[in-house]
């Protein structure tokens, strides 16, 4: 890869919490949080905390989100990891 093709980020850049994407997806589907929580098998409170960005997407919830939205648990876990500012091996960035 050439140097001019490398993607660079601003020093203050922090990836979005996966809850922001969950909120956007639920809105686009016109799916209330309470209904989505029921489909996910979690409490509405838990889903509200994820959407608010005050709780992380755990591996268990990632599997459930993947099934609900038709993608993978890895997608949600990578998004959470990026938000947490950690590398894929778990070390601090």
Radius of gyration: 15 Å
Number of helices: 5
Portion in beta strands: under 5%
Can you tell me the overall shape? globular
Secondary-structure element order, N to C: HHHHH
Question: Which stretches are poorly predicted, pLDDT < 50 over at least 5 residues?
Answer: 87-93
CATH fold call: 434 Repressor (Amino-terminal Domain)
CATH level-two architecture? Orthogonal Bundle
Task: Describe what you observe in this structure.
With about 90 residues, the protein is mainly α. The chain has one domain: 434 Repressor (Amino-terminal Domain) (Orthogonal Bundle). About 55% of the residues lie in helices and about 0% in strands. It is built from five helices and no strands. α4 (about 60-70) crosses α5. The longest helix is centred in the first third of the chain and has 12 residues, at about 20-30. The two termini are about 20 Å apart. Residues about 85-93 have low confidence and may be disordered.
Topology:
Elements: H1 18-29, H2 33-40, H3 44-52, H4 59-69, H5 73-84
Helix pairs in contact: 1-3, 2-3, 4-5
In brief, what are we looking at here?
With 93 residues, the chain is mainly alpha-helical. The longest helix is centred in the N-terminal third of the chain and has 12 residues.
List its traits.
single chain; 93 residues; mainly alpha; 434 Repressor (Amino-terminal Domain); 56% helix; globular; disordered C terminus
